[in-house]
Amino acid sequence: MDLIAALLNPAVYPDTAGQVECLQTHISYIFLTESHAYKIKKPVNFGFLDFSTLKKRHYFLEQELVLNRRLAPEIYLAVLPLVVRQGKLHLGGQGKAIEYALQMVRLPQPLMMDEVAGRRELTTAMMDAIVARLVPFYRQAATGARVNKFGDLAVIRYNHEENFSQIQPFVGSALSAVSFHDMVKYVNSFMQRQAGLFAARVKAGKIRDCHGDLHMRNICLTDGVYIFDCIEFNPRFRYGDVAADIDFLAMDLDFHSYSDLSDYFVTRFAAQSDDPDIHKLVNFYKCYRAVVRGKIHAFAAGETELEPEDKEKALQLARNYFDLAWRYSQVGS
Question: CA-to-CA distance for 314 and 180, rounded, in angstroms?
Fold first, then answer.
């Protein structure tokens, strides 16, 4: 059975589906009905994430459900089995699962933060609402010995070295050798000079079980603020300094030419959370996050399933993010 083709049939779904739309990322398929979204993980293994078996895909969908209910409990509904009964595919019900899907409430696409940004409609009031949602989230987020070790400089260094090793194959196509060298030099110099600051962050309780993927496409500005799609596949990318988390969104605001709101967001968050040291880490973590986004788009550009124009678009996005990361390295040098 061609599972992806079968999932375009409205009869598969428990709700009145009408027309079904399929979207995809480099790690997931998302099927949209009129009222719900259903996510299925691709059977991929990139090292830093592993969805290669049905058991693993089921486990990480369950993790995604639990973790995302922290910031969007109304949106994340259930993990449902995909089963075949009498030769037909059904989502939910009795039968042996051939795959699993995460069921979510479908959010209004025009109110996704990246689309609001594209219409040049972002405001300081929206930033205030996001800060008001995030400050108590981080205050309540898990911390302690198990989480704190991810604030150690050795782990931070490993994260950056891994990032750089993964983008090295794209040197020459998505970024220049000079840019790559400058970013590596800046990161290593900053970690050496600020070792005491990283240690102080751990002692101050600033290492938390965060979101891990806090950019505009994962925020919906509807009747409230819904922040969704956190990192579930690897706690190393979710456990970390609160500064690293909020600087992802700050970087994304810069990327979309909202540098004024980026500065406003960081300043408001630092004040509301009583954490002035965040300002010392802004460029360092913005650089890291821009590299992460560049890496993801560079990976996407190599997807065999994508059309040539989509591959070129992904490659250009990778170049743009890597260029932004390089610019942070120059400001912070």
Answer: 19
